[in-house]
């Protein structure tokens, strides 16, 4: 049997969740408030059994008990239940990507990218000399973001940001010129060590700020200092169009995410927070 990685999510039964679906913008909104279980054992491995007595969200009828569960993966989810008790992790998944648009079926590095016009984004931050965008990446390594001036930037220069390539160790900024036959030239602008930045189990969510003078800063949610930055003042390239690619690992991107300062105080977050604590 093909080895698969699954993530099981125990979902709270909560009427507010139905209300929240009206504003769903990506499929991960459905698992808000769930506990997350990763590093799932193989079929013949030792399973951790979660004691259902300790779950906060169990539906009851006088003839049954109801559990709501989510599975993320390509195939072969296996659920076993019985009367044994084992300890379990209390890790509550935090859905940082609420309200983002989701992009999967990400094209390969040498395929034609789909560039999204940032002028159509609902969520763009602006300062007097920069614009910023909130983006999420879920996957084990090698996020690739390209941005530039047009939707079909062949024979044009774009910026390519490699987020934790080289087996999730290093991030790089390049100036890239790509031709219609997909041949390309790269000029390296910056290399930085970023060990274990990406994860298959938790999205990396960050702000990408593009300054008019060619500076670019990537800053993780909840952090003040960029984890990656460079400046290319000779060739400032605006992020009028943004595209996403991958290398050897499947990725899911989240883009046009609500900017942090907006999302934290919104009505929807409040409702959902109450839901996950219920
Ligand atoms: C179970 O619930 C149903 C409907 O809620 C009720 O009609 C029935 O009498 C209940 N049965 C018992 C054994 O309590
Ligand atoms: C993309 O093309 C370059 C040059 O043609 C090649 O070296 C590289 O391995 C290709 N990458 C992928 C992921 O196919
Ligand atoms: C919470 C949120 O961002 N909701 C948006 C989902 O998408 C629709 C249509 O694009 C918007 O109208 C909502 O505001």
UniProtKB/TrEMBL annotation:
It comes from the Eukaryota. Residues 43-99, 109-258 form the Farnesoic acid O-methyl transferase domain. InterPro entries: Methyltransf_FA. The keyword Lipid biosynthesis does not apply. Keywords: Signal. The keyword Signal applies. Residues 1-20 form the signal peptide. This is Farnesoic acid O-methyl transferase domain-containing protein. It comes from Anopheles darlingi (Mosquito).
